[in-house]
Amino acid sequence: MSDTHAQTVPFVRDTMLPAAPPPDRQAGAVRWLRENLFSGPVNTVLTILGALIVWFLFVTFWDWFAHSVWNASSLSECREIIAATWGEGARGACFAVIRERWNQYIFGFYPPDLYWRPTMTFGLLMVALAPVLFGASLLIRRVVLAVTAVVTLGAMIVLGVPAGWLAFTALVLGFGLYASERNIAWLLPFSVIYPLLGVWFLWGGTLWGPIFVLVAPVLGWLAWRLLAGRAPMLGAVAAGVVTVLFWLFLAGDAASDAQGLIPLAIEPVRSDRFGGFLLSLTIGVAGIALSLPLGIVLALARQSDMFLIKSLAVIFIEFIRGVPLIALLFVASLLLNYFLPPGTSFDIILRVIIMVTIFAAAYMAEVIRGGLAALPKGQYEAADALGLDYWKAQRLIVLPQALKISIPGIVSTFIGMFKDTTLVTFVGLYDPLKSMSDAVRANIAWKGIYWEPFIFVGAIFFLICFGMSRYSMYLERRLQRDHR
Amino acid sequence: MTKSVFLGTVAAATVFAGMGLAQEGSTLAQVKERDELNCGVNTGLVGFAAPDASGNWTGFDVAYCRALAAAVLGDPNKVRFVPTTGQTRFTALSSGEVDVLARNSTWTFSRDTDLALDFVGVNYYDGQGFMVRKDLGVTSAKELDGATICIQTGTTTELNLADYFRANNMAYTPVNIDSNAEGEQQYMAGACDAYTTDASGLAATRAAFADPENHIILPEIISKEPLGPAVRHGDNNWGDIARWTLNALIAAEEYGVTSRNIEELVRSSNNPEVQRLLGVSDELGAMIGLDAEWARRAILANGNYGEIFAANIGEQTPIGLARGLNAQWTQGGLLYAQPFR
Q1: Which CATH number applies to B128-223?
Q2: How many A×B Cβ pairs under 8 Å?
Q3: Which CATH number is correct for A274-484, 3.40.50.720, 3.40.50.10470, 1.10.3720.10, 1.10.10.10?
Q4: E-assigned strands of B127-187?
Q5: Could B208 and A75 be called an inter-chain contact, meaning their C-beta atoms sit closer than 8 Å?
Q6: Fold of the domain spanning B27-125+226-331
Q7: B1 touches chain A (CB under 8 A)
Q8: B276-296 tens-digit pLDDT
Q9: Chain B window 169-228: which residues touch A at a Cβ cutoff of 8 Å?
Q10: CB distance from A450 to chain B under 8 Å?
Q11: Is the ipTM of this complex over 0.85?
Q12: In 3-state terms, what secondary structure has residue B81?
């Protein structure tokens, strides 16, 4: 075949020409600039305007950042140092306030010799989250857990942890790494008990409290087993009643009795010692962990055919979404006290967590309802055709797809809720953004400082929220099942 | 089975609620049982209440709380400071979350009556003033016609400002701010010609400027701001304790009782008023449900009124407030403790 044209054409080239480089205007940075920044008159003008704005911001604020002072004990000392180094009239940032008060921005008024406890709690949180968040990717898991282990243990040693607790943390982190390599599911029991452990680590007190909180569902399960054979409905009711009654009336006494027998207590820390990012993260993590399941239940309830359940869900969601979060926080902090008998102390952080959770859950329910609505009807019908009952259909067919669709919305709600934790400033808790900065400014040494704390706190908030956002994008890619 | 469980729950809930109601009693009994005083303070105000780097509260209002705790519980450290904001302070008091509110709150008619508070006295006589830049050339508040003024919203200062300008037939443009720190920023950035708030706050703000010499506080004080601790209506004995603890601190200064010479005076003073104050003669403490040495402990906690003033906001501190109206009546001020008899 190759010599088909040999007689008809005088010359046939049998090799390809070498690829010529593209013209200069169509290659490299020039092409990128032309295509992205100067592709037309409008785009060109906008690019120049944008560059001018960036340049203006840089010129305006550069000297302020460049003259930063990190070593001073008061604002006036900062000013003296700046004046001495850069001449009279020079201005500069006084980040020394962060250097001196960073511990309060991070831990609030938590006792300084116990700073290792929140650190440990946070490190172990990563272990508890690994099977939930990074169950699919060994590489990410390995990196996250290894970094967590190094940072947590290092920070704990610096903060002066007792040897026993250091060994405990190292053990748990080591087991986390080992389980992550072998079988990540081994960590799931730890994830389940982590919330109670975390509460115990942060607030301290006796370990018997969390233990007896755990005992209640076990007793409830026993009650259910005893009765379920005869009357399933009665069994479920009895299980609930036994659990709640045990929590209400027996758990506290049992814990203090057991504590009397075998003391297992660490130093208690009261809620009013919490503040800064410790407070934000405690409320944020608890709110996120609780609002997602609650939101799913509410979304399903709103889709339900049962009139009562549907109406209750609609009323709850619409009421909570119609009320500002600050109003709910005021109710939590002030109004509840009028209804509770005098002398009862219902922990303020717990109250705030409950309010933040139901607030986020109402939004979450609508986000998930969007996901449910986006699912083609055929999926529901297919589930029915397979003979799955309601819960199986939801668990195996509907929710996995609906939640996948809702991921951006869910994570947006999380991010919004985490940032909303700063609103606790209005009920007298020390959020990192406003209350803590005001408290720092109330010291005459730092009065008059303004932007530096905002920049510091804003940067940390950005890191956390950006991390959440990146994680949601990773999750979307991982769960992508269609072809593009 | 279900029925009995249900009835049991109802019965248990009733007993539980009953127990809760039975605990209601006098504030003094509650405080003693709790062995801790819940004191509502500012979330942070220079000189009056602020937590330091290690979380210990100090300040002028804080000192009163400590004195009260020392009088009632015998230990100035048995106080839980509950930070309250401008919005939550009075509700926190009336809902019982705090036993006493020492949060630089102005004693006004409506707060005393309508809000059902009892102000037990005045621990600081403040008043609203103005601060302006020196190069503005203004020497009196009367010359501020047409000025833009930075003013904190939701406070009595906002109302006072409107009253003052209306009374003097002047116009102004308000620049609303949310907090003192924001006000300073706006003022420094030139967003307003004058900054107005309580004179004590102005002095502290000016002291924190990079160039305090370029700013002046105008001589006019346009309002009365008697700041004092408050308790809720309905427990007069607790109100008496709070009032006379404050009076004890003020009277101690008048009679020259300080934290340094108090032990000596207990032994040697032959002034009958001092003897009664310090519980050497008569049994004044028993009349308010405390022991004889209550006032002695209150004074020992942080010293008398003058010592507290000097340590937190006085002229030796960076805030540098003069005694002014807050001097003893014998020194030309307004402090006048009722007699201990």
Answers
A1: 3.40.190.10
A2: 127
A3: 1.10.3720.10
A4: 128-133, 147-152, 172-177
A5: yes
A6: D-Maltodextrin-Binding Protein; domain 2 (3.40.190)
A7: yes
A8: 999 888 889 999 999 999 999
A9: 179-181, 184-185, 204-205, 207-210
A10: yes
A11: no
A12: strand
